[in-house]
Amino acid sequence: MNSRLRELRRTLGLRQVDFAKRINIGTSSLAMFETGNRAMKDIHISQICNIFNVNESWLRTGSGEMFNQTDDTILSAVAEKYHLDRIERSIVETFLTMEPQTRESAKAFLLKMGEAAARGKVAE
Q: How many beta carbons lie within 10 A of that of residue 15, not counting itself?
C-alpha cells in the first residue's frame, strides 16, 4: 500500500507536506506511510479516499482504478436528456454541490422569482 500512496500523491502533483496537510497528519507520518515504516490506520485510508476521491480497493490492494467514477457521468446524462446548454448544466451542478443552507436560500430566491414572473413583474 505504501507504493500506491506515493503513486497517488505524485499523480495528484502534491508534495508530502501539502498531501499531509490535506489529510490532517504530519509530514513525518506520511513519509513513514510511504516508506512502509508505519502502517496506515483505517481512519487515514478513509480520509485519503474521501478527500481525493480514491478507490479504496485500489489503495488497499491495487485492484481497480485509482480514482472512483464521479457523478459527472450522471450529470452528463441528465444534461443530454433535458437538452441543457453549458450554462444550464453549470447551474444544476452548482446547486447540487451547495451546502444545505445555501440550497435553501437559492430555492427561496428562485421561488420569489417564479412568483414575480407569474405576476408579470419580471421582464422577459
A: 12
- Cell reading at 89: 448544466
All 3 cell numbers of residue 75? 450529470
**54: how many CB neighbours lie within 10 A of its CB?**
22
Query: Helix, strand, coil: what percent of the chain each, to 5?
Result: 70, 0, 30
Beta bridge partners of 112: none
Which residues, in sequence order, are CB contacts of 91 under 8 Å at separation 6+?
Answer: none
- The string of pLDDT tens digits covering residues 13-69 is 999 999 999 999 999 999 999 999 999 999 999 999 999 989 999 999 999 999 887
Summarised one tens digit per residue, pLDDT across range 79-117 is: 888 999 999 999 998 998 899 999 999 999 999 999 988
- Residue 43 in grid coordinates: 481512519
Contacts of residue 27, defined as CB under 8 A and 6 or more positions apart, other chains included, come to: 16, 17, 20
Which residues lie below 8 Å from residue 62, measured CB to CB, with a gap of 6+? 4
